[in-house]
Amino acid sequence: VGLPRFFAPHATESGATIDLPEEESTHVARVLRLAVGAHVRVFDGRGHEWDAMVHRVTRHTVAVTLQDEVIPRRESGVALTLAIAVLKGDKMDDIIRDAIMLGVIAVQPLVTMRTEVSAATVERSRRVERWRRVAVSSAKQCGRAVVPSILEATTLPSALDQNTLRVMLVEPAIGVTTRRLAELPAASAATLLVGPEGGWTPEEVERADGSGAILITLGSTTLRADAVPLVALTALRVRWDDF
Amino acid sequence: VGLPRFFAPHATESGATIDLPEEESTHVARVLRLAVGAHVRVFDGRGHEWDAMVHRVTRHTVAVTLQDEVIPRRESGVALTLAIAVLKGDKMDDIIRDAIMLGVIAVQPLVTMRTEVSAATVERSRRVERWRRVAVSSAKQCGRAVVPSILEATTLPSALDQNTLRVMLVEPAIGVTTRRLAELPAASAATLLVGPEGGWTPEEVERADGSGAILITLGSTTLRADAVPLVALTALRVRWDDF
After folding, report:
1. CA angle (B237 as vertex; B231, B243 as ends), nearest 5
2. Cβ of A218 and B243 within 8 Å?
3. Helix (H, G, I), strand (E, B) or coil at A151
4. Which residues of chain A does B220 touch, with a Cβ-Cβ cutoff of 8 Å?
């Protein structure tokens, strides 16, 4: 609807007046320079969204009054998690942004055998916090009322250890049985596992196979590393959800 | 196979000794510093590829002898053309690269009502020549033996004026009948039309609709402008070709 949207994880219900978080308050007061009475939208990151009005503007805090709850943007019918080997530098920011715009409900950063970034570096550089800010800004940008979870980095074995459908993207030449997209079972929830630029090790592929994950390829298609998750997520959405 | 690949549009048949184009010769002699007798691959950009051997290296020209013809990377079963409104700056380079890696056979740059780059600018800045170099380097990189055509920039009406299936990507709110991907007819050739960041004008959508093009959306998904063609091409490939 074109109204500016703000993220307020503590939003409660129509009629309530709540403080926006500091970053959002700054955005209201200093960047957009909205005054008391301005119309905005507020979402709680868990799928609720309201029409709202700026109620009070002080130096560090903006309070808004929640008005009618509105119907949020429809979420994808498949709860997709992207488990992806951490890429170097800022590349992960774009991947997380794209994945969120494509509707994932969570991103699980992975540290694999060939990941170029160590778990220690991920922790020390506070990447996860940074990615969480990217998640909020992406949700604001693309109109979702859900802010996807950015999970703490983990290893492949621990990412494989779950009950939902796990789909691992592998290179075609890997010498294990892969399935075509059309052969994937229907699913309401799934985790897509995408390896690092150097690929999965044969042991990692075996472990995933042995744990019941389904292996898929993108045929002989060779893509830029940054484009791989976008293409694979799109392929799964088309297979399951048809946008 | 890991052998360096070179583009030789004038390659003929096994047994022939041919000169590589100047840029490719420089790459052989100065960058890779290959000597006489080195094994390489040569492709003609029209789907043929050979094992080859460096035959002669002079200051500006490298000659290679074509040996056995090899089976080239399989092309997509659907001859897809991406007709895309020209984006500003270097963004088109990445889009063309990704599109080629996803298997398009041609890219048709479009100048639409809301395109921010004029036809005159496209011409004056020799963009098409630049994009053709991108096409060659992308084909080399992703292993295709076909170098997709980069057509001269044209207008929407002229891009619509053809007999193959035309699929126009539109915003969901546009108020015209769109089809779901699953409803697209089977096709062996198609043109995907993607508008500029500012979108198509209502007149452009009407014209496309009236000309028999099929209008599709990506549902309520909002993407970065650069990601739109990649996602839409992937969606069509999954629909028709399943990688």
Report:
1. 115
2. yes
3. coil
4. 73-74, 143
Which pair of structure tokens corresponds to residue B87?
Answer: 């984006």
The complex's ipTM works out to 0.89
Between CA B200 and CA B223 the distance in angstroms is 16
**Closest approach of A225 to chain B, Cα-based (Å):** 11
Is residue A209 within 8 A of residue A176, CB to CB? The reply is yes
With an 8 Å Cβ cutoff, are A243 and B219 in contact?
yes
- Burial category of B37 from C-beta neighbours within 10 Å (exposed 0-12, middle 13-18, buried 19 and up): exposed
User: CA-to-CA distance for B172 and B211, rounded, in angstroms?
Assistant: 19
Angle between helix A127-142 and helix A91-101 axes, rounded to 10 deg: 40
Residue B174's pLDDT band, with cuts at 50, 70 and 90, is low
Asked if pLDDT for residue B52 goes beyond 80, the answer is: yes
What six digits make up the tokens of B83? 């007709």
User: A17-76 pLDDT, tens per residue?
Assistant: 999 999 999 999 889 999 999 999 999 999 999 999 999 999 889 999 999 999 999 999
B60, pLDDT greater than 90: no
Bridge partners (DSSP) of residue A220 are A218
Q: What is the pTM of this model?
A: 0.91
Rg (CA), chain B: 20
Q: What is residue A209's three-state secondary structure?
A: helix
- Distance between CA B213 and CA B156 in Å, rounded? 12
CB A193 within 8 A of CB A166: yes
Chain B contact present for A177, CB below 8 A: no
How far A43 CA lies from chain B's nearest CA (Å)?
17
Nearest C-alpha in A relative to B224: A98
What is the total residue count of chain B? 243
- How many distinct helices (H) and strands (E) make up chain A? 7, 12
Tell the residue number behind the tokens 């193959």, with chain if given. B164
The Cα B149–Cα B172 span in angstroms is 31
Q: pLDDT, tens digit, for every residue of A161-218? A: 999 999 999 987 667 889 988 899 999 999 999 999 999 999 999 999 999 999 999 9
- Residues near A105 by beta carbon (within 8 Å), at least 6 away in sequence: A75, A79, A80, A81, A146, A148, A149
